[in-house]
Amino acid sequence: MTTRVDGGPRTPGRSMAALAITYLALLVTCGGGPGDSSGRGSGSALSTASASTSTTATPEPTTADPSAVPGHLRGKDVTEIPTGDRVVALTFDAGADAAGLPSILGTLADQQVPATFFLTGRWVDDHPQDVAVIHAAGHRLGNHSTTHPHFTALPDQAIRDEVQGAEQRILAAGADPRPLFRFPFGDRDERTIAAVNDLGYVAVRWTVDTLGWKGTSGGMSAQEVADRAVDALRPGEIVLMHLGSNPEDGTTLDADALPDVIERMRAAGYTFVTLDALLTAEDRRSPAAG
Predict the structure, then answer these.
(1) CA distance 105 to 115
(2) Which helix or strand (DSSP H or E) is residue 181 part of?
(3) 3-state secondary structure of 241
(4) 210 in the Ramachandran plot: left (φ > 0), alpha (ψ -120 to 50) or beta?
């Protein structure tokens, strides 16, 4: 039996039970129940939609809109929002389980912070109701592929299937990921970036990876996760975190560190935005900022 060691801060004045209540309230608002969050709820339209788009099904082609990608973002895997304003985009990748989601959504709601969530198609299959919960809470969704493969090893048709498969699943669950895409593992090259651009997606990387996914078994703690995010603080920073737990130790360090990350960034005068800000931002950085 693994003993959980978080090694970091908790939400001031807020218990995990209170965060769970916030999550459940969002779930009820979406018409689901606790059983739905695992994709096994009975009789929900979202569960039905998930069942009709299994991971073995060939995704139906969608009409790509390359014009959705602003010219200055084509050919790039964007690492920050081009701005001189003190704004930060918190982003969460979902490809494994959803162990950290109740805490993350509870913290974001409690602190009134928007975020962007990149979902894989398989995660949507397993957690269709959670897609609606994230969307209903006012957060932005993005596309993280269907099966989380290394894109540079894929032929062009497989890239299209991966992107469109996830898109179809997220749309069926009631949200729209377009035009935000994140490459699994950050694995990309000129060809793969051009391919997702042609499918109507902006490729979004990150400024800093908190490494919370490594867990305590990988030598990380919630304090170190928060320090990595804050040490990289700069206008337009994009922070990469994860929803799931570490498979070896069960920790959810990104969820545990989130209250401290928000508190320290706010103390430094920063506010929070979704990656929609990337689509409308003009490059207003000073020359020294690059």
Answers:
(1) 9
(2) strand 180-181
(3) strand
(4) alpha
Is the CB of residue 229 less than 8 Å from the CB of residue 263? no
How many Å apart are CA 282 and CA 193, to the nearest integer? 21
State both tokens at 180: 């935000």
pTM of the predicted protein model: 0.80
Element (H, E) at 105: helix 101-111
Strands 87-94, 271-272: pairing is parallel
Condensed to tens digits (0 to 9), the pLDDT of residues 18-74 reads 554 555 555 555 554 433 333 323 222 222 233 333 343 444 556 778 888 999 999
| Terminal alpha carbon distance of the chain | 49
Structural domains of the chain in order of their starting residue, each with its CATH number: 16-43+66-285 (3.20.20.370)
**Which are the contacts of 191, defined by CB distance < 8 A and separation ≥ 6?**
152
